Amino acid sequence: RGHTVVWHNQLPGWVTATAASSDEQAAVLQAHVTQEVDHFRGHIYAWDVVNEPFNDDGTWRDTIWYRPMGPDYIAQAFRWVRAADLDARLSHNDYN
């Protein structure tokens, strides 16, 4: 099981180095998602696509993804992961 593709922590430097408009940030997220999932395709049977997008009180977490893209980043991430691995099971992970 792959944990996690999209999170607000533990990001590669090239991901966080991009001060971006929504289009630029979407391109960075797509590249990040595609590279990670493609690298492990056939070895990972399931992915936690998005991890902890909400605060403890249920509001949206203000993240590098949410700020420029809004909540649509979640659906986009699921689409990109699916495109990179047609066979993997996909899920959302949260603790609250």
From TrEMBL:
It catalyses: Endohydrolysis of (1->4)-beta-D-xylosidic linkages in xylans. This is endo-1,4-beta-xylanase. Its EC number is 3.2.1.8. One of its GO terms (molecular function) is endo-1,4-beta-xylanase activity. GO terms for biological process: xylan catabolic process. The lineage of its organism: unclassified sequences, environmental samples. InterPro entries: GH, GH10, GH10_dom. Belongs to the glycosyl hydrolase 10 (cellulase F) family. PANTHER family: BETA-XYLANASE (PTHR31490:SF88), GLYCOSYL HYDROLASE (PTHR31490). Residues 1-96 form the GH10 domain. Keywords: Carbohydrate metabolism, Glycosidase, Hydrolase, Polysaccharide degradation, Signal, Xylan degradation. Signal peptide: none annotated. The keyword Cell membrane does not apply.
